[in-house]
Amino acid sequence: MKQWVTFILGFLSFLAVSVMIIVVFTGNKPYSDLEKAAIDRAKNEELLVDVQQSYVYANKQTTVTVIGTDKKGTLKAVFVPAGKGELKAVPLDGAVTAQQAREKALTEKEAKDILHTRLGMESAGPVWEVAFIDADDHLNYVYIKAEDGTTWKQISNL
User: Where is the Cell wall elongation regulator TseB-like domain (predicted)?
Assistant: First the structure.
């Protein structure tokens, strides 16, 4: 009897882990597919030759930010809208870096933990979205313009 209980518990544990893995991969698939399509589109339109990173940026319209270099070796960010739409390419040479945006957010606010830093296109142009947890365990967002490093918008104490 003891062996049956051990077998059943082991099987149920294996089944639970398998289901969790399937859910995680299935849940991430739409984002992965969207990123892959955006990278292919940026390369096919010859805006980028080499891709360093890409991620989904959500505001009023979901876009994928693809960061890489063009034929001349210039570092660029290409903003690819989900579905159809015009691509926007912005050179990043001389622009505020992700590290500089994080440092600015840390100096302006008392951040306990930085969650992410993402470059996205807003009405003000390219901005770094810095999400962090403050000392009071509140979620905060600071949007820093990539062109000059000024704070464009803040969302505090969520």
Answer: 37-81
